[in-house]
Specification:
This protein is of the alpha/beta class. Helix content is 40%, strand content 20%. It has one domain: Rossmann fold, CATH 3.40.50.150. It is globular, with a radius of gyration of 18 Å. It starts with 8 loop residues before the first strand and ends with a helix.
């Protein structure tokens, strides 16, 4: 795992490249490192390993602070030394999808990849259909990276995918979205949190828990989401890697990991330790 650097700088290729902030590099390091340890650790235990990216983006991203361009999640996953046996990449935005498609075709035509255009919440059945068939003697394990810009992820999407054997790494925009829009989401007519948690009566639970302040809203959402994942037979151990802004060190979002197997938890713990040590050295 030490030989692979998930932060892969590239030159401009003239295709659409969205702008990101510097802290996205920590996210790329985490997802790339997990992909690497996942395929290396499981390649001799499973016949098929599938990578799913529900918000794949354009494949490249430009860091606003220094104008450097890096591969983003989907192409990082396609660059690891031990490849997945199949990649399923989803993107709703037309410009991003076109850029991703051309980059995949140009640089990764040797890999088994299926691209799905559209909202992953709407296309979840297409995603499931794209997962190869498996049976005894032809086993399959998936890793799904979920990187929405907000709380736009429906829990029904995760529930549907979670019926298969899949590990999740989910970006939870609990500070960037939930905390900033607390009053809006609390309004009775707003359905965002109900859809995100998969809990229609979340407001009743919110009041029942005695949580009446904005500072506790993040904890409430994190705890309820963990409970929902536990109902899908995911490990009850909470693993949330917090990403903070580089300038003011403000909390932005969490990268939350979920696995049905203790081995996955062990992998993620090792990745977190590696990232922590690297960040310490960077300081």
């Amino acid at each position: 795992m030490d030989k692979f650097n998930p932060q892969i700088e590239v030159k401009s290729d003239g295709l659409f490249t969205p702008e990101v902030r510097e802290w996205s590099l920590e996210k790329y390091k985490l997802v790339g490192s997990y992909c690497d340890i996942f395929t290396n650790g499981m390649k001799n235990k499973w016949d098929q390993l599938v990578y799913i990216d529900l918000f794949a983006g354009a494949g490249y991203a430009k860091v606003k602070e220094n104008n450097k361009i890096y591969k983003s999640s989907a192409l990082i996953a396609m660059s690891i030394p031990t490849s997945f046996t199949k990649y399923i990449l989803c993107e709703q935005d037309g410009e991003r999808f076109e850029a991703l498609s051309r980059r995949v075709e140009r640089d990764y035509s040797h890999l088994n990849c299926e691209l799905i255009k559209g909202d992953s919440n709407v296309n979840v059945l297409k995603v499931i259909e794209a997962i190869p068939s498996f049976r005894k003697g032809n086993t399959l394990l998936s890793f799904c990276f979920v990187d929405p810009y907000s709380l736009s992820l429906n829990f029904s999407t995760i529930r549907s995918l979670g019926k298969t054997l899949v590990d999740f790494l989910i970006l939870q925009a609990l500070h960037m979205d939930a905390n900033r829009n607390f009053e809006t989401y609390l309004k009775e007519e707003n359905t965002r949190i109900a859809t995100y948690l998969g809990i229609e009566n979340w407001r009743e639970l919110f009041e029942k828990d005695g949580i009446a302040y904005r500072k506790d809203f993040v904890k409430f959402l994190a705890d309820r989401y963990q409970e929902q994942m536990a109902k899908l037979d995911y490990q009850k151990v909470k693993f949330m890697h917090q990403i903070r802004s580089n300038d003011k060190n403000l909390p932005l979002y969490y990268l939350s990991f979920y696995s049905k197997n203790p081995r996955g938890i062990d992998f993620f713990r090792k990745v977190q330790q590696r990232i922590k040590s690297q960040l310490t050295m960077d300081l």
